[in-house]
Amino acid sequence: MTRLLPDAVHQAVKPGTAVVRLQTTHDRRGVLDGAWWPCSRDIAAELPALISALTEYLGPLTRVGLDAGAWDALPTRLLVDDRVVHIDSFPVGDDTVLVTRGDQDHFSLLVIPPHATPEAARTAMAEAVRADNITQAEQILIDTGTDRTAPKT
Predict the structure, then answer these.
(1) Alpha-carbon distance values, 114 to 14, 29, 34 (Å)
(2) Which residues, at least 6 apart from 114, have a Cβ–Cβ distance to it below 8 Å?
(3) 137 with 103: CB under 8 angstroms?
């Protein structure tokens, strides 16, 4: 039996930490199911914590789809909590990660760039988890002032 996350799941957004906010609803009308703020673009370092956190609520995850251009290097699979998770990569540039549970149950998460400010990350996450959100991931990042690439220093 899969548990749904409580409607009021809320985690503090802190700089330099991976954060997941996921709201599942019975009708799933929104474009996105949640948001993720990784600490870096190193998927091997970041993904296991995301998979472990989601597995607690959603059950075993089998696949993760990622934008190939958004990460430093992408393996084809990772071992997470003694389970193989297959990684699919696509050059789509859509600022999301797709997580698959079972055969056809997909969850789409907005990926907040690691360099985002806590305020921008919090605002983007709040928009992503709204059940009636119809705004695409890229537009949410634009609207919150969080560009896909880190500012030049």
Answers:
(1) 11, 28, 16
(2) 37, 38, 39, 40, 41, 150
(3) no
How far is it, in rounded angstroms, from Cα 119 to Cα 37?
12
* CA-based nearest residue to 21, from 120, 139, 111, 119: 111
Cβ pair 111, 7 in contact under 8 A: no
Residue that the structure tokens 């700089």 belong to? 15
pTM: predicted TM-score of the whole model, two decimal places: 0.80
- Six-digit token string for 34: 């949640």
Is the torsion defined by CA of 127, 22, 67, 48 positive or negative?
positive
- Write out the chain's pLDDT in tens, 153 residues: 334 444 443 445 554 444 555 655 555 566 888 888 888 889 998 898 888 888 887 888 889 999 888 888 889 999 998 999 999 988 767 788 888 887 767 888 889 998 888 888 888 888 888 777 889 899 999 999 886 665 555
Give me the sign of the Cα torsion angle 28, 31, 33, 34: negative
The alpha helices in 34-146, defined as continuous H runs, are: 43-58, 118-128, 137-143
DSSP 8-state code for residue 44: H
